[in-house]
Amino acid sequence: xxxxxxxxxxxxxxxxxxxxxxxxxxxxxxxxxxxxxxxxxxxxxxxxxxxxxxxxxxxxxxxxxxxxxxxxxxxxxxxxxxxxxxxxxxxxxxxxxxxxxxxxxxxxxxxxxxxxxxxxxxxxxxxxxxxxxxxxxxxxxxxxxxxxxxxxxxxxxxxxxxxxxxxxxxxxxxxxxxxxxxxxxxxxxxxxxxxxxxxxxxxxxxxxxxxxxxxxxxxxxxxxxxxxxxxxxxxxxxxxxxxxxxxxxxxxxxxxxxxxxxxxxxx
Amino acid sequence: xxxxxxxxxxxxxxxxxxxxxxxxxxxxxxxxxxxxxxxxxxxxxxxxxxxxxxxxxxxxxxxxxxxxxxxxxxxxxxxxxxxxxxxxxxxxxxxxxxxxxxxxxxxxxxxxxxxxxxxxxxxxxxxxxxxxxxxxxxxxxxxxxxxxxxxxxxxxxxxxxxxxxxxxxxxxxxxxxxxxxxxxxxxxxxxxxxxxxxxxxxxxxxxxxxxxxxxxxxxxxxxxxxxxxxxxxxxxxxxxxxxxxxxxxxxxxxxxxxxxxxxxxxxxxxxxxxxxxxxxxxxxxxxx
Lengths: 267, 288
Prior knowledge:
The structure holds 2 protein chains of 2 kinds.
Chain A: E1 2-12, E2 17-28, E3 33-37, H1 44-51, E4 59-64, E5 67-68, E6 77-80, H2 92-102, H3 107-120, H4 136-148, E7 154-158, H5 166-183, E8 186-190, H6 194-200, E9 203-207, E10 212-219, H7 235-254, H8 257-260, H9 263-266
Parallel strand pairs in A: 2-10, 3-8, 3-9, 6-7, 7-8
Antiparallel strand pairs in A: 1-2, 1-4, 4-5, 9-10
Helix pairs in contact in A: 2-3, 2-4, 6-7
Chain B: H1 8-47, H2 51-56, H3 62-65, H4 68-79, H5 87-118, H6 120-135, H7 142-149, H8 153-177, H9 181-189, H10 194-212, H11 214-231, H12 237-246, H13 250-278, H14 283-286
């Protein structure tokens, strides 16, 4: 369980302070798949960074499994970045084994686990190639397998499919849903793609523009198993999409270009 | 006809054609290179044989620039002829110093680059000193180095180190700083402690930048050694050149220069191959 309790986050620039996150509270239950959407600059990636313990919130606190997160990565937490984080100097096999090596697993356990993960990610036969020899979609799968090797109970995904084409993206959606149904992790997905959020998640949180609050907590009650290809054609999908879009689109409309700048760009 | 209508045999033929045209291109480039070399040698050889040119234009005066045929005769004399065996000790002395200087410079440049990237205050305090040291003309220090380290190998190695160190240091430092925060955080979520991050992420990342500097580093190391041999030494290719110069023997000087340029090209090619081998995982470096 993840509890986000009245979290606020301020960025200091040379001239002023910018509250990216105003006051966000949310509770995410064990095994739930929750998506967070919102206009650019609303601090949704920052929120994920705070849950992971990479940065400390300015105000409020986050508890994971009841324990307050303080600049320390909670146990059993996996994180997929938007950027490619596969280590280019290791072969695919050694990348997937990395987390197990860090934890000091035995060599034969590592080999067995890597083989089963390669199969899980449909990457049999690619164990001994270097990452540059893979396509973008395959590298994303390797990053996911690197995380899954550590058996995370919580998966934080920060726009993990942002840079992919629709075809590859949808195939990866299907794999993610399969993995989630098989292993039952708690998943928090940050995305700018409402299609993706509705297709995948049980719940969609909409953040307002900065300083952000949760302005909609919408349950997507389309039953599982969902077929990622056909679910988009259903009336239920259209209904959920429209309900959320009505709120989200309003935020997009209000956005000024200045507010769309990221803190780095302002500096 | 579209691609889907091609039979397997057609495809085999096409692949073979592509391979052949790549090979043909390499041969064409080689032919151009050899032709250019021959043209330059011909201008040198025959230009210096035209009496008017040799008398009025200094760069065609064989007293200054010798002649390819005389240089070739001198090289033959050094390798097979009357003075057979006199070249090798000098060449090996230069090569030995070049390698030792290179290894010491790469090791120290890498270590200091890594250290500075991890200790930002140290880097901030020392960087003006490093920049100042790096912008001084190296040649001004060579006599001093020779006085301190003597006429032997030590001063050659120190001179080579003095030039190569900065190249390796700056490359490594820049590379170590270029590492992305996401990569480090990602490995931390996989359970890495700081020591594991250093060995599996920071060092391989910085090494790739160090290796990329190797072909240039070996050239500079050779230059440093020869420079040191000019100023004060009793062996080496630089010593041969300076002796030839002082006895106004241009054929000997160009013979030594020819050996040096062959050695230089060979070393750079070898180190490019080594770099590609070490960085075989990195498409960016491979394509350079």
